[in-house]
Amino acid sequence: MAFAAIGAARPLEIYFIDIEGGQATLIVSPSGQSLLIDTGFTNFSGRDADRIAAAAKDAHVKKIDFVLITHHHSDHEGGVPNLLQRFQVGTFLDPGPPVDADTAKLKTYKAYEEAMANQHREVIKAGATIPVKGIELTVVAAGGQVIDRHGDANPFCSGIAPQASETAENARSVAVVATLGKFRFANFGDLTWNKQLALLCPENRVGKVDVLETPQHGAEDPKAIYGLAPRVMVMNNGPRDMAKGWKTLHGSPALVDLWQLHFAIGETEGTNSPDTLIANVDEPDEGKFLKLSAEPDGSFTVLNSRNKYSKTYR
Asked: What pLDDT score does 103 carry?
């Protein structure tokens, strides 16, 4: 009976939702509790909230327990008002008030603040845990700070110089690691080059992960990220959103596959993954998602909802 119960346990499920350039990632633990990382854009007749709702329906999620806003840019927090028209949310988490002076980038923050008047909101800090039952969720960076713990030396840090300037709000992105048994998943929001170095060099404070959702929608990251040794990366890019980072990411020594939410239109040959690993190939697209199902033994499967292709990683 015990073996039957274990076999019937629900896996950890992660939905990478196409919102055409920003981020919306739904994590559903074996307990059924959920965490939504970012909400995509506002407007588009509620397009992004509808796509989140479609993923939630597939996951049999009717209430979202936690919403984590990694930082205050319109492609990450803009969809909050639309989301609240469709879902009850338990707790909102974010790194605190924005610091960018660019009012265009912060045009959705006012609407976010207004929505929070009737919501439970908490400021999250590096080192905190998010209490989603059934998994461990650790905040490894937030508000411009990184987690205060030691890690193994990262051999990929050698010769990497800091960048001269970075977007202040992106640098405050919340980065999290989700753990179920031997399986580990990392999401860094739009964490910038210099903050990645602070987190990963000279010591890797994160450790190794099985799956990495690429920071900044596929922008170029320092090769220090190779120290995470992901077997799979998922790129939450839009059709015209993927920058020059594909080749760098694809060069990670431990990488088996790089899945994409969208075919990168206009990119040169050799900077898109095979068609089977891409959720959306046209512009405008149908908003197909990628779904990951993970087991405590470290094995996981990724499913492409567009073509029903799936691949299991032992």
From this structure: 75
